[in-house]
Specification:
single chain; alpha/beta; Rossmann fold; binds adenosine-5'-diphosphate; binds magnesium ion; ATP-binding
Length: 262
Amino acid sequence: MSSTYRPDGTPPLEVRDVTVRFAGLTALDAVSFTVEPGTVHAVIGPNGAGKSTCFNVLSGVYRATTGSVRFGTAELTSLRPHEVAALGVARTFQNIALSPRLPVRDNLLLGRHRLTRAGFVASGLRLPGARREERAHLARVAEIAEFVGLGAHLASPVGLLPYGVQKRVELARALAMEPKLLLLDEPVAGMNSGERVEMAELIVSVKRSLGISILLVEHDMGMVMRLADRVTVLDFGKRIADGPPDEVRADPKVIGAYLGES
Ligand SMILES: Nc1ncnc2c1ncn2[C@@H]1O[C@H](COP(=O)(O)OP(=O)(O)O)[C@@H](O)[C@H]1O
Ligand SMILES: [Mg+2]
């Protein structure tokens, strides 16, 4: 894919001592880790470990009780979801967030709203500048679709596509925002083994070709061991390990946490 929009100067994401308490329960307990620019960083752990809570704090959906999340000069813990997105931090949503009746192309264009200068009014009036901009967005959407293997499906309504293909549309829509950092919550959940391998390869190629940092929240340890540069392991809201995949996989605390899962 062309590097026209390749993000320059992607900063690290620095999660420091983040604690999230719900009534009577500490879902995250002073968790720290750093997502280095241009890497795939996985946060893994058994069910209930605090992975989704962490994801929701990073995307502005949950407020941290204490702690900080810095992305360059921005402090994300005080921002709302659309403000986090405007800084170039994109997340995938579940299928529900896609418009099933609309073709793939339109779903990806919706992902580009934050980049649309002309806006709705000018587009509605068909001003020349707006038309030019629309053509550029359509060309970019076609390029992104090609990159994630959706080239043949641009005109297909999303709801008619197989599940594994819909998951690619989710990823493509996040990429349509031209993010610096991509947050993925269990991107292979519900997929068969063939689809899992394909998605893992796609995630690696997003990193390699686009230089985007990726934070991947995942239950399945096997999945992240193949593609993550670094892994943070949570258990009962606490960080129990943080390091390269090989080191983490051999850590007795990590093995214990996964064995302890019923
Ligand atoms: N909105 C919430 N209100 C109350 N408790 C919550 C909420 N979200 C998560 N929890 C609790 O926080 C803990 C961590 O949950 P979660 O982050 O979803 O774990 P994971 O994604 O690793 O399975 C669980 O005990 C869960 O029940
Ligand atoms: Mg979860």
